[in-house]
Design brief:
heterodimer, A: Rossmann fold, five-stranded parallel beta sheet, 9 strands, about 40% helix, B: Rossmann fold, 2 domains, five-stranded mixed beta sheet, globular
Chain lengths: ~325, ~325
Amino acid sequence: MPDVEVEPPRGVNRDPSPIEPVAHGRHRLMRLSRRFEETVQEQFEEGAVPGPLHLSIGQEAVAVGGCWDLRTTDAVLSTHRGHHHCLAKGAAPDRLMAELLGRSTGYSHGRGGSMHVAIPAIGLLGTNGIVGGGIPIAAGAAYGMQAQARDDVTVCFFGEGAAAAGVFAEALNLAALWQLPLIFICENNQYVELTPQELHVAGELYRRGEPFGIRGERVDGNDVTAVAAAVSTAVQRARAGGGPALIEAVTYRWFGHYAGDRAAYRAEDEVLQWRAQDPLLRSRAAIGDAAADAIEAEVEQVIADALEFARSSPVTGVDALSLDHYAR
Amino acid sequence: MTTAAVDTRSLKFWQGINQALTEEMERDERVVLVGEDVARPGGPFGVTRGLRDRFGDLRVRDTPIAEAVLVGLGVGSAAVGLRPIVEIMFFDFAMIAMDQIVNQAAKFRYFSGSSLPLVIRTMCGAGGPNGAQHSQNFEAWYSAVPGLKVIMPSNAADAKGLLKAAIRDDDPVLFIETLGLLAARCDVPTGEDFVLPIGVADVKREGADVTIIAIGRQVDRSLQAAERLQAEDGISAEVIDPRTLQPLDADAIVASVRRTGRLVVAQEATSPYSFAAEVCAIAAERCLSELKSPPVRVTSPFINVPTPVPLAEARAPGADEIVAGVRKAVNG
């Protein structure tokens, strides 16, 4: 029973990190992601976010399960909808909040915003404004690890929409050909921007690797234990030189494509059905109310601190615009 | 250009590239080379011959024909500690990898504050019976992208010294080789320490009456034109090769134009929105009052590249066109 293992949780920007059971740590991280995005959504509605937002609320289990077994030296490629990936890989909530609020203490001096967060020091090689843009980079990171004879792995998150991009087929072929330590995680949230996945996806996504000899698996993307178990198996195999894997995590995007999109293109019943399968309800039930309440209270403090940090940081000014274009 | 007291050896352009690759891979084990046909065949034009045997399959690797993922191999591996060199067989094929070059590689430092030591080598220009999808010059497009550096050498020595500089550089560099120059020889310094600075123009020939700014194959052709102009017209032409297009050594260009009072720009690319257009704009902004005549652009006409070599050569500016351009600048 993996949930009794003891590990430090990831992503909570505090030192020293508390030691706690795995299920507690996962719930903490999922709750952190949920509350982070709810908070940034409120900030957006107040006009305090100078850029677009794509919320991953409802999809937290994919990121937390997908990153749970990763090291700092493992790489993650994220997407335009990537706050949960960032936090799960260890981004500091305060600096991420500052970035989204356009503050100089953000990861890109507050110039990039949600879709342009890259933190190589923790292996986060980028959210991405280009759908599918991270997929070729993931192949490169995995090749880099292989060429350096490291036993690190690369996890590439992408949506069911990006699966239609040509680079996905290119990367599957190359990953199989070179047996790269690369785990493709297709985060199927049912909607490709403003239209349902039925208009985009032919066949079964998790089987897209089969012609290349890549193992595919479909998991319940709202069950962090199931996601983490599938990814853990794939990660261990990849670390040992067993090559790539493809995991389709089936989940649901609770809100519109972007903050401000009311998502009138889908039925309320459908949304309610999926909300009933809230991944956080499950992770909460797994640890019990008392433990969950305590964790959630701690997360509230982390979020409050992050917001305070961001708000008290200087608004990014034009003096930062020319930073970080060239080494010299 | 003087290389007094430096040991040199006559090398072809491709040998200069090959030496730079060999020396830098020898010097730094993080340097790797990936591309279509670069390993076993030794390169589509033989430029990378011998490297796989010397450095092994993991460091010199043939890739599938998939340019977007090919450049992604460079971006991702540079982000995790390698210093990759990606070869795109023809410049035309870089169009397929535009997202990875422009949206990803060029913005990595801007987003992250971290280095991305990536070199993308490619081959431009007419120079064989290759036609409209294997002969184009897109140097200006990439030179317009913040975050990229663009180098385009015109001889074996510059190619070697600047490729070594590009490999040691911590930013993404597009290194443009020229098909029509691959067999051209010149004396190349032999030392491993021969590294040329990025962003510094080279005066290939000094002159007093007119400044010719040329890149790629048009550098040698400009030198030929300059000899003819001296002999036939008594015109003393200065020939400058910026070698690096981004960053561009505008100061060197402006200083020369101020002295000569006349400007001719020679390139193989078509004229609209091109390198030549940029040089003319710089001259207009910085030394218009010192120009004795309007600048002249000597470029390919605004048409596609034909496949038969005689037709492709007829399209590209040669010494005749450059001579005519200079006469226009000098005589009006």
